[in-house]
Amino acid sequence: MIAQRKGNPTLEILTAAARGSYGVLAVIVYNVEQLTALVRAAEAKRSPLIIQLFPSTLIQLPSLVFAVSAAAKIASVPISVHLDHAQDEAQIRQCIEESPFDSIMVDMSHYEKEENLSKTRELAKLCHANGIAVEAESGRINGDEDGIAGTGNLEGLEYSQTLLSYRNADDILELLTTAADVEDFIEVEIDMLAPSVGNIHGDYGARGPHLDMARLSSISHQLKGRAELVLHGTNDFEPELTKECIRAGVTKININKLILQCWNDHLAANAHKFSVTRLIDGGIAVLQPEIERWMDIVGSSGKA
Protein backbone atom coordinates (compact mmCIF):
# COMPACT_ATOMS: atom_id res chain seq x y z
CA MET A 1 0.00 0.00 0.00
CA ILE A 2 1.48 3.34 -0.99
CA ALA A 3 1.72 6.19 1.49
CA GLN A 4 -1.46 8.15 2.09
CA ARG A 5 -1.09 11.54 0.47
CA LYS A 6 -3.37 13.19 2.98
CA GLY A 7 -1.36 13.59 6.15
CA ASN A 8 2.07 12.96 4.63
CA PRO A 9 3.81 16.36 4.46
CA THR A 10 6.04 15.57 1.47
CA LEU A 11 3.21 14.18 -0.64
CA GLU A 12 0.81 16.96 0.33
CA ILE A 13 3.41 19.53 -0.75
CA LEU A 14 4.04 17.77 -4.08
CA THR A 15 0.38 17.08 -4.80
CA ALA A 16 -0.33 20.79 -4.47
CA ALA A 17 2.63 21.58 -6.73
CA ALA A 18 1.38 19.18 -9.41
CA ARG A 19 -2.07 20.72 -9.21
CA GLY A 20 -0.62 24.24 -9.46
CA SER A 21 2.03 23.43 -12.09
CA TYR A 22 5.00 24.70 -10.09
CA GLY A 23 8.10 23.12 -8.61
CA VAL A 24 9.24 22.76 -5.02
CA LEU A 25 12.85 23.02 -3.91
CA ALA A 26 14.21 19.99 -2.05
CA VAL A 27 17.42 21.38 -0.60
CA ILE A 28 20.23 19.50 1.13
CA VAL A 29 21.34 20.95 4.48
CA TYR A 30 24.56 20.23 6.32
CA ASN A 31 24.15 22.40 9.42
CA VAL A 32 21.69 24.45 11.45
CA GLU A 33 22.85 27.71 9.90
CA GLN A 34 21.75 26.56 6.46
CA LEU A 35 18.51 25.30 8.04
CA THR A 36 17.88 28.77 9.46
CA ALA A 37 18.38 30.38 6.05
CA LEU A 38 16.04 27.88 4.39
CA VAL A 39 13.20 28.34 6.85
CA ARG A 40 13.53 32.13 6.81
CA ALA A 41 13.45 32.10 3.01
CA ALA A 42 10.39 29.85 2.89
CA GLU A 43 8.51 32.03 5.34
CA ALA A 44 9.57 35.24 3.62
CA LYS A 45 8.41 33.92 0.25
CA ARG A 46 5.39 32.02 1.61
CA SER A 47 6.73 28.97 -0.16
CA PRO A 48 6.49 25.25 0.59
CA LEU A 49 9.84 23.55 1.03
CA ILE A 50 11.39 20.09 1.34
CA ILE A 51 14.53 19.93 3.48
CA GLN A 52 16.84 17.00 2.75
CA LEU A 53 19.67 15.32 4.61
CA PHE A 54 22.29 12.96 3.29
CA PRO A 55 22.83 9.63 5.09
CA SER A 56 26.39 10.74 5.89
CA THR A 57 25.02 13.75 7.77
CA LEU A 58 23.07 11.45 10.09
CA ILE A 59 26.41 10.04 11.20
CA GLN A 60 28.30 13.34 11.31
CA LEU A 61 25.52 15.32 13.01
CA PRO A 62 22.95 12.85 14.38
CA SER A 63 20.90 15.58 16.09
CA LEU A 64 20.43 17.66 12.93
CA VAL A 65 17.40 15.71 11.68
CA PHE A 66 15.59 16.48 14.93
CA ALA A 67 16.42 20.17 14.56
CA VAL A 68 15.07 20.08 11.00
CA SER A 69 11.92 18.29 12.13
CA ALA A 70 11.35 20.81 14.93
CA ALA A 71 11.85 23.73 12.54
CA ALA A 72 9.41 22.18 10.05
CA LYS A 73 6.75 21.73 12.74
CA ILE A 74 6.85 25.34 13.97
CA ALA A 75 7.24 26.98 10.55
CA SER A 76 4.32 29.02 9.25
CA VAL A 77 4.57 27.35 5.82
CA PRO A 78 4.50 23.65 4.79
CA ILE A 79 7.95 22.07 5.22
CA SER A 80 8.75 18.37 5.08
CA VAL A 81 11.83 16.37 6.04
CA HIS A 82 13.38 13.96 3.53
CA LEU A 83 16.30 11.52 3.62
CA ASP A 84 18.10 11.65 0.28
CA HIS A 85 19.98 8.75 -1.34
CA ALA A 86 19.57 6.28 1.51
CA GLN A 87 21.58 3.25 0.39
CA ASP A 88 22.32 1.32 3.57
CA GLU A 89 19.43 -1.03 4.37
CA ALA A 90 20.25 -1.17 8.08
CA GLN A 91 20.36 2.62 8.29
CA ILE A 92 17.05 2.92 6.43
CA ARG A 93 15.39 0.52 8.87
CA GLN A 94 16.83 2.46 11.80
CA CYS A 95 15.59 5.76 10.36
CA ILE A 96 12.10 4.33 9.88
CA GLU A 97 12.00 3.36 13.55
CA GLU A 98 13.84 6.25 15.18
CA SER A 99 14.04 9.36 12.97
CA PRO A 100 11.31 11.90 12.09
CA PHE A 101 11.48 11.63 8.31
CA ASP A 102 8.37 12.29 6.25
CA SER A 103 9.90 10.65 3.18
CA ILE A 104 12.94 8.56 2.28
CA MET A 105 14.71 8.00 -1.00
CA VAL A 106 15.32 4.27 -1.05
CA ASP A 107 18.26 4.41 -3.45
CA MET A 108 19.19 0.95 -4.62
CA SER A 109 20.19 2.20 -8.08
CA HIS A 110 23.77 1.01 -7.62
CA TYR A 111 22.42 -2.56 -7.87
CA GLU A 112 21.31 -4.23 -11.07
CA LYS A 113 17.69 -3.59 -11.97
CA GLU A 114 16.05 -6.70 -10.52
CA GLU A 115 17.88 -6.41 -7.22
CA ASN A 116 17.11 -2.67 -7.16
CA LEU A 117 13.40 -3.46 -7.54
CA SER A 118 13.43 -6.26 -4.99
CA LYS A 119 15.19 -4.27 -2.29
CA THR A 120 13.09 -1.17 -3.01
CA ARG A 121 9.86 -3.18 -2.77
CA GLU A 122 10.77 -4.63 0.63
CA LEU A 123 11.86 -1.30 2.12
CA ALA A 124 8.94 0.61 0.59
CA LYS A 125 6.48 -1.67 2.36
CA LEU A 126 8.18 -0.98 5.65
CA CYS A 127 8.21 2.77 5.03
CA HIS A 128 4.54 2.84 4.07
CA ALA A 129 3.58 0.84 7.13
CA ASN A 130 5.05 3.69 9.15
CA GLY A 131 3.50 6.51 7.13
CA ILE A 132 6.71 7.43 5.30
CA ALA A 133 6.60 8.25 1.58
CA VAL A 134 9.14 6.60 -0.72
CA GLU A 135 11.25 7.89 -3.59
CA ALA A 136 13.27 5.64 -5.90
CA GLU A 137 15.67 6.10 -8.80
CA SER A 138 15.05 4.34 -12.09
CA GLY A 139 17.61 3.93 -14.79
CA ARG A 140 21.03 4.96 -13.51
CA ILE A 141 21.84 8.60 -12.96
CA ASN A 142 25.56 8.62 -13.55
CA GLY A 143 28.25 10.57 -11.79
CA ASP A 144 29.24 10.86 -8.15
CA GLU A 145 28.08 13.01 -5.27
CA ASP A 146 29.79 13.54 -1.94
CA GLY A 147 28.79 10.81 0.49
CA ILE A 148 26.86 8.75 -2.07
CA ALA A 149 27.80 5.48 -3.76
CA GLY A 150 27.59 6.52 -7.38
CA THR A 151 27.73 4.64 -10.64
CA GLY A 152 30.83 6.51 -11.75
CA ASN A 153 31.49 7.93 -15.18
CA LEU A 154 31.38 5.64 -18.18
CA GLU A 155 34.86 4.98 -19.42
CA GLY A 156 35.77 6.96 -22.50
CA LEU A 157 32.77 9.29 -22.38
CA GLU A 158 32.84 12.92 -21.35
CA TYR A 159 29.58 14.09 -19.79
CA SER A 160 30.20 17.59 -21.02
CA GLN A 161 29.10 16.22 -24.42
CA THR A 162 25.52 16.92 -25.40
CA LEU A 163 23.06 14.07 -25.04
CA LEU A 164 22.57 14.13 -28.79
CA SER A 165 26.22 13.40 -29.37
CA TYR A 166 26.00 10.04 -27.60
CA ARG A 167 22.34 9.14 -28.10
CA ASN A 168 23.25 6.15 -30.29
CA ALA A 169 25.63 4.63 -27.76
CA ASP A 170 23.99 1.48 -26.39
CA ASP A 171 25.76 1.76 -23.03
CA ILE A 172 24.33 5.25 -22.49
CA LEU A 173 20.81 4.35 -23.58
CA GLU A 174 20.78 1.42 -21.18
CA LEU A 175 21.20 3.90 -18.33
CA LEU A 176 18.19 6.03 -19.27
CA THR A 177 14.73 5.41 -17.84
CA THR A 178 12.38 3.53 -20.15
CA ALA A 179 8.60 3.09 -20.19
CA ALA A 180 9.10 -0.42 -18.80
CA ASP A 181 11.21 0.98 -15.95
CA VAL A 182 8.39 3.34 -15.01
CA GLU A 183 5.85 0.52 -14.78
CA ASP A 184 8.25 -1.67 -12.83
CA PHE A 185 8.72 0.99 -10.18
CA ILE A 186 5.03 1.84 -10.05
CA GLU A 187 4.38 -1.85 -9.40
CA VAL A 188 6.81 -1.63 -6.47
CA GLU A 189 4.46 1.08 -5.14
CA ILE A 190 6.77 4.04 -4.78
CA ASP A 191 5.45 7.57 -4.33
CA MET A 192 8.15 9.56 -6.16
CA LEU A 193 10.26 8.61 -9.16
CA ALA A 194 13.65 10.08 -10.04
CA PRO A 195 14.34 9.16 -13.70
CA SER A 196 17.56 9.14 -15.65
CA VAL A 197 17.18 11.43 -18.68
CA GLY A 198 20.76 12.56 -19.21
CA ASN A 199 21.08 14.21 -15.81
CA ILE A 200 24.07 13.34 -13.63
CA HIS A 201 25.13 13.66 -10.02
CA GLY A 202 27.88 16.22 -9.64
CA ASP A 203 29.15 18.79 -12.12
CA TYR A 204 28.45 18.71 -15.85
CA GLY A 205 31.59 20.40 -17.11
CA ALA A 206 32.03 23.29 -19.50
CA ARG A 207 29.22 22.30 -21.88
CA GLY A 208 26.62 22.16 -19.13
CA PRO A 209 23.60 19.85 -18.77
CA HIS A 210 21.74 18.50 -21.81
CA LEU A 211 18.63 16.52 -20.95
CA ASP A 212 16.41 14.33 -23.08
CA MET A 213 13.34 16.52 -22.55
CA ALA A 214 11.14 14.36 -24.76
CA ARG A 215 11.92 11.38 -22.53
CA LEU A 216 11.20 13.40 -19.39
CA SER A 217 7.83 14.57 -20.75
CA SER A 218 6.96 11.04 -21.82
CA ILE A 219 7.73 9.70 -18.34
CA SER A 220 5.55 12.39 -16.79
CA HIS A 221 2.63 11.53 -19.07
CA GLN A 222 3.07 7.83 -18.37
CA LEU A 223 3.00 8.36 -14.61
CA LYS A 224 -0.43 10.01 -14.83
CA GLY A 225 -0.16 11.19 -11.25
CA ARG A 226 0.58 7.72 -9.88
CA ALA A 227 3.89 9.03 -8.55
CA GLU A 228 5.49 12.46 -8.38
CA LEU A 229 8.32 13.23 -10.79
CA VAL A 230 11.67 14.16 -9.23
CA LEU A 231 14.66 15.87 -10.83
CA HIS A 232 18.14 14.96 -9.59
CA GLY A 233 21.45 16.35 -10.80
CA THR A 234 20.73 20.09 -10.91
CA ASN A 235 24.28 21.37 -10.59
CA ASP A 236 24.95 24.01 -13.27
CA PHE A 237 21.26 24.35 -14.19
CA GLU A 238 20.12 27.67 -15.60
CA PRO A 239 16.69 29.00 -14.56
CA GLU A 240 15.13 28.38 -17.97
CA LEU A 241 16.14 24.71 -18.05
CA THR A 242 14.69 24.28 -14.57
CA LYS A 243 11.43 25.89 -15.68
CA GLU A 244 11.37 23.63 -18.74
CA CYS A 245 11.64 20.58 -16.48
CA ILE A 246 8.73 21.85 -14.38
CA ARG A 247 6.66 22.37 -17.52
CA ALA A 248 7.48 18.75 -18.40
CA GLY A 249 5.92 17.61 -15.12
CA VAL A 250 8.67 17.73 -12.47
CA THR A 251 7.46 18.77 -9.02
CA LYS A 252 10.38 17.92 -6.69
CA ILE A 253 13.65 19.60 -7.60
CA ASN A 254 16.68 18.31 -5.71
CA ILE A 255 19.17 21.06 -4.95
CA ASN A 256 22.64 21.02 -3.47
CA LYS A 257 25.54 22.98 -4.93
CA LEU A 258 23.26 25.05 -7.16
CA ILE A 259 22.16 27.03 -4.12
CA LEU A 260 24.75 26.18 -1.46
CA GLN A 261 27.80 27.28 -3.47
CA CYS A 262 27.27 30.87 -2.32
CA TRP A 263 27.56 29.61 1.27
CA ASN A 264 30.83 27.84 0.48
CA ASP A 265 32.18 30.90 -1.31
CA HIS A 266 31.32 33.09 1.69
CA LEU A 267 33.20 30.79 4.06
CA ALA A 268 36.23 30.55 1.78
CA ALA A 269 36.44 34.32 1.41
CA ASN A 270 35.85 35.26 5.03
CA ALA A 271 36.87 32.44 7.39
CA HIS A 272 40.25 34.04 8.00
CA LYS A 273 38.75 37.50 8.59
CA PHE A 274 35.68 37.13 10.78
CA SER A 275 34.68 35.58 14.08
CA VAL A 276 32.45 32.52 14.04
CA THR A 277 29.34 34.55 14.90
CA ARG A 278 30.01 37.02 12.09
CA LEU A 279 30.64 34.17 9.69
CA ILE A 280 27.30 32.60 10.62
CA ASP A 281 25.37 35.85 10.28
CA GLY A 282 27.07 36.63 6.98
CA GLY A 283 26.45 33.13 5.62
CA ILE A 284 22.75 33.27 6.41
CA ALA A 285 22.55 36.75 4.87
CA VAL A 286 24.15 35.44 1.66
CA LEU A 287 22.22 32.15 1.44
CA GLN A 288 18.69 33.31 2.22
CA PRO A 289 18.25 35.59 -0.82
CA GLU A 290 19.67 32.91 -3.12
CA ILE A 291 17.07 30.45 -1.84
CA GLU A 292 14.36 33.07 -2.28
CA ARG A 293 15.53 33.72 -5.86
CA TRP A 294 15.16 30.04 -6.74
CA MET A 295 11.75 29.85 -5.09
CA ASP A 296 10.69 32.59 -7.49
CA ILE A 297 12.24 30.68 -10.40
CA VAL A 298 10.46 27.40 -9.67
CA GLY A 299 7.18 29.18 -9.02
CA SER A 300 6.59 28.14 -5.41
CA SER A 301 6.66 31.68 -3.98
CA GLY A 302 3.27 32.69 -2.64
CA LYS A 303 1.90 29.14 -2.83
CA ALA A 304 1.93 28.45 0.94
UniProtKB/TrEMBL annotation:
Recorded superkingdom: Eukaryota
Cofactor(s) essential for the protein: Zn(2+)
Residues binding Zn(2+) 2: 107, 137
Family the entry assigns: Belongs to the class II fructose-bisphosphate aldolase family.
EC code(s) of this entry: 4.1.2.13
Name the UniProt record assigns to this protein: Fructose-bisphosphate aldolase
Enzyme superclass (EC): lyase
Function: Catalyzes the aldol condensation of dihydroxyacetone phosphate (DHAP or glycerone-phosphate) with glyceraldehyde 3-phosphate (G3P) to form fructose 1,6-bisphosphate (FBP) in gluconeogenesis and the reverse reaction in glycolysis.
Pathway entry: Carbohydrate degradation; glycolysis; D-glyceraldehyde 3-phosphate and glycerone phosphate from D-glucose: step 4/4
Any GO MF annotation of the entry: fructose-bisphosphate aldolase activity
UniProt xrefs under SUPFAM superfamilies: Aldolase
Co-factor note (free text): Binds 2 Zn(2+) ions per subunit. One is catalytic and the other provides a structural contribution.
